[in-house]
Structures are given as structure tokens and as C-alpha cells.
Queue: 4 jobs
Job 1
Amino acid sequence: MTKACPFAAPSGYIRPVNYSSPACRKACLHRGRQRIVAIGDRSAGRFRGGRFDQGVTPTKHSSEEIVMTTTDDENQIRTLINRWAEAACSGDLDRVMACYAPDVVAFDAIVALQFRGVDAYRKHWEYCMGFAPGDMLFTIPEMNISVGGDIAYCHFLVSCGCTDEKGNEQTGWMRGTVCLRRLKGQWRIAHEHYSAPFDPESMKALTDLEPE
């Protein structure tokens, strides 16, 4: 008697396997995403992009290889976001925009509900850089990154703002979520969302809150 493997991705594709077999248990659960490492026999196929390809010999990878690949991706994403923040702080608009996908959709915390496409978002960044009387400030103490194939997301708390005419820092904490795609082998920001909670009585943003 066969049972549906509980390690199958939640896409509705169910593959009959022997749940008690050691091969079925050989799955890697990493950061909340169920990834098939090597399961089943040669005739059953391999999970790929939301479906099982029949008649394909499963590719076996060690858990060390899977972890190493994911760690490399996470490091690349962390480097990208740090480079984005450094470029913003230095006022280098070209370097900031190089971090985005051409079809980026952005939900920034000010001015408009959304910005669609890198050209529209570039104009918004020009406005933000011109609006700041001094240097822009971005500090991201910690990032939480999850990677799945060519898609990834990252969320964090960011202290952002600028210096005033006297050089005093005017900053507040915001919530940031970044979604990324791998384009031609390079991670790029496809969507980002920045926001601050607000007081429903005064309708004012609560930018004086701090991380616990």
C-alpha cells in the first residue's frame, strides 16, 4: 500500500511513494521551504518548478551542497542590500538604481501608493535625495533572508532619515520587505515595501518607536 509523500510541495501534485522507505525521508527542510533533495525511484521522476517530471533520473545532492548554495545566495542578497544602503547614503543614484529589476514595483512610505518600473522609481529617488537637506541615513542591523530557487525575500527593520542643516541626525524606524529575482545570474530587487505603523486616533506615523 502506498501513501502520498508528506514532503511533496504544496502545489497539488501528489506522487505515490512508499512513505516508510528511507529514500522518502531524505528531504531537506530549510527556512520554512520544503525542498526535495533526492526521493523515490528512477521511474517516478523529480520535483521541478511545481510539478513532477516523469522518467527523469533524480539528481542527488548532499545536504552540505544544498546548504552551501543557499548560504551563497543569502550572502549575495545581503551584499546587494548593503550596497543599496551604502549607495543611498552616499547619494549615488546610479548605484542605487542598479540594484533594481527593470520592472520593479515599489510601495514606498511617502508620496504615492506605488511606483511601477525603474524609470518612475528613479524619479522618486531623485525627489527623495533632493528633499534631504543633508546626507541620507540607512542602518539595517539585521536581515532575515529566505531563498527558493530564483526567488527570494528579505525583511528587516531599518533606521532611516537624513541629517539636517546643522548635521543632526533625524531618523526613525521603518519596516522593510524586499522581494528579489535572479536575473541573468544576478539578484535584483523586484519589489520593496517600506512602512511605519500609525496612530489611528491622530493618523500620525509612529516613527519614534524602536525595536524591542
Job 2
Amino acid sequence: MKQKFALILLCISPSLVLAGCATDSGGLRTREENKLAVNGERTKFGAFWNLHPDCSAATLPNVRIIERPAHGTAEVVTEGVFPSGAKGKYAKCNGKAVKGQEIYYTSTPGYVGDDSIKLRSSYGLGYVDDVSIRVKVVK
């Protein structure tokens, strides 16, 4: 029986400040990132997608917010995303629209300072990714 292989990626917007540290413990992978957002402006923090080798969408990632920001709002939106950064046999998929999950953050109007969000994503493949995002909100 042939097995299907899928590429699963989190794309981070290149306009954001990034830093990361990843660990893996029994299928739960954790990562920390730093992001920059302008006060009161809706900012895309990234996109989650899952691809088949032919670049069609595989399962829709299950992305949820497990710790909400204290000084703003975060939302997960299902929409068309454009994969980037795929390598090897998936490189041909870069820039092709597929259904995925986008993450958006908006600070409380007038707020400047630090905030944080924690996301959990899974794809039904036996592991879970947690992403802790430290947000610096500027004027």
C-alpha cells in the first residue's frame, strides 16, 4: 500500500522580526518567536498549510489559540495561503495558492509595549506544534 507524504509548514511573514528556539518532547514540538506589530494595526503573523507532493492541499491544519494576548486580539482565519520556503520535491509548490490557516494579531488601540500569544497546531499525523509568540507593539 502506498503511503501519502505531505509537507507541513508554517510560513512567517518576512516583514516581522523573528527569533526562534525549537524543542521536541515525545511528539510535542515547541518553538518561541519574536514578532513586531504596529499599535492598532491588524498584522499577519504567519500561515499554516499542509501539502501533497502534487501541491494540492492535504488536511487543513487545526490551529487554535491556547493563550490569548493580554493587550489585543488574535484570530485564526481559514483562507487561501501561498506557501514559501518549501524545499526538495515541494519547491515547485512555492507561491501556489492552497487552503490554509492565517494568524492575525491586533493590539488594543493606544497600547505600546509587550504582549504574547500561544498557538497550537496539529495535522492528524501524530505530533503537535506549540508556538509561543512574544509581541513587541510599537507606535
Job 3
Amino acid sequence: MLQLKLKQLYKKKGVTQHQVSQDLNIRAGTLSGLANNNRISWDIEILEKLIRYFDIKDMNDLIEYVSYYDYIKQLESIPRQQIEEEFKDVFEDYYGKGKKNKEDHD
């Protein structure tokens, strides 16, 4: 499984996810999903913005391969409260803030 190394890039550049979101005009929920590897697919335009922003010369600085086994072990080590908080932005982006379920969004 491929994962983005956004959290490492934020730290290396000394920026927050919120700052990157504002600088690149990318929704915070989108970046959160990418940084936490909760996205099934990646938008090429967003990846290109991130590559330019972080001045990526080697794709290994942005993307890494993690075996499925190691990925599951990573997930198992995350406290439930942290998962709920990290997914909050993703759900809000998908369903809309203040919406309780998908039917409310449609």
C-alpha cells in the first residue's frame, strides 16, 4: 500500500496542516485524509501542488510503500479517540458540517 509522508513533510518544513491548507487553497479535511492515509485515491492536481510546495525532488520523500500487514499494525496502535478526531474532518467534508447522515447531505 502506498502512503503519503505529509506529516513528516509538515514537520520538516515547520508548517501546520492548517497553514498548508490556506497556502495551497486545499480543504483541511482533504489534507487530513491524505496525511492520515484515509483516502482511497489521490488527486493529481493536489499532489502536484504538494510537490511544488515542499520542493520535492525525489518521490521517496513524498510517498512510501507500507505492507498491508504493517498498515494494519499502524491502525491497531492508534487510540479510538484519535481516529474519531482525525476522521471528523473527512466526514464533515463528505457529509457537510452539521449533517448527521448522508441522506441529510443529498
Job 4
Amino acid sequence: MELKAEELDIAPYPAPVKTGMITGKMPSGIIVLHKPSGIFAISIVHREQHKNREAAIKQLTTKLVMTGVNTNGVNKQV
């Protein structure tokens, strides 16, 4: 399943802040929204934002396949 860039809304997501010496760290989490279906995925697992982005897009693709949504946002007829 191929996702089109214009169908996705990708934004930083504030990851949980750990208490400690380093404060004011930029959020490394990512939230990816599929605009036509309204389905989203969040990834805060990795420390790097680009890895979280890849993980969130992979999660979103899996969710879309499992729910039967085409890339054009129309549900498949079963």
C-alpha cells in the first residue's frame, strides 16, 4: 500500500518528559494523520525523530490495511 504525501499530516508529538539534568529537550515523537480516513498513528519509541516518523508511517499503513481503507480513503466492499 502506497501512501501519498498530500494525504498525510505529519507533526511533532511531545514525548513524555523524564525528570533529570537535561530539560527543554525538543519532542522526538511523531504523529501521522491520514486525512481522508481520520486514522492516525503515534510513535515515541525512538530517540530520533526520523526513526519515529518511519515507525509511525509503518503503523499507519498497517492500521489502514487492517481496517480495509484504500489509499483514496474509500472503504473496500467485502
